[in-house]
């Protein structure tokens, strides 16, 4: 079997059934959502790694579940490596309020002056814990459960913080925050 046929077989397997879902499952697990600036690039990287992992898998492909598990891990490691490399290059190593302030006022991330002014007003009224909640939910796309684990507080506490944030920023946003 030649190399071109091997690649075709691997791509056919990926597109067969719901095997391509492995790539999207890895992205979800890594908290990479469709609005991430490199989402489509990471989908393509994941597909390419899927094909590479399929080809590297031992010839005995009878146990599809085990093979898909192997492919999932391979895709996860490659995408995680890419994300870490891009983060090392583009993100300064700062903590707490400084990190959040820098993320909000990064010219490329938020070029709109009006948005910067609103975020400046929001940051001014929030404490550090509330800023961490905003960062986790909206900038990192994490769920309340994930933040609860990361910050080592209960989900109930996070909901209390969220309600405090709503109360604090209501004068800035007006009545648009009503549920």
From TrEMBL:
<protein>
    <submittedName>
        <fullName>Uncharacterized protein</fullName>
    </submittedName>
</protein>
<dbReference type="GO" id="GO:0003700">
    <property type="term" value="F:DNA-binding transcription factor activity"/>
</dbReference>
<dbReference type="InterPro" id="IPR013325">
    <property type="entry name" value="RNA_pol_sigma_r2"/>
</dbReference>
<dbReference type="InterPro" id="IPR014284">
    <property type="entry name" value="RNA_pol_sigma-70_dom"/>
</dbReference>
<dbReference type="GO" id="GO:0006352">
    <property type="term" value="P:DNA-templated transcription initiation"/>
</dbReference>
<dbReference type="InterPro" id="IPR013324">
    <property type="entry name" value="RNA_pol_sigma_r3/r4-like"/>
</dbReference>
């Amino acid at each position: 079997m030649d190399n071109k046929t091997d690649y075709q077989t691997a791509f056919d397997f990926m597109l067969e059934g719901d095997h391509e879902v492995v790539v999207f499952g890895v992205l979800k697990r890594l908290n990479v959502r469709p609005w991430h600036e490199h989402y489509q690039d990471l989908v393509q990287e994941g597909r390419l790694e899927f094909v590479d992992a399929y080809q590297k898998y031992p010839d005995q492909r009878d146990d599809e579940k085990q093979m898909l598990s192997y492919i999932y891990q391979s895709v996860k490691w490659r995408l995680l490596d890419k994300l870490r490399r891009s983060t090392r290059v583009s993100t300064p190593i700062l903590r707490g309020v400084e990190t959040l302030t820098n993320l909000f006022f990064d010219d490329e991330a938020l070029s709109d002056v009006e948005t910067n002014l609103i975020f400046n007003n929001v940051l001014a009224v929030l404490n550090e814990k509330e800023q961490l909640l905003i960062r986790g939910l909206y900038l990192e796309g994490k769920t309340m459960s994930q933040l609860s684990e990361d910050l080592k507080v209960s989900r109930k506490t996070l909901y209390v913080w969220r309600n405090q944030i709503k109360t604090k920023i209501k004068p800035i946003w007006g009545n648009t925050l009503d549920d």
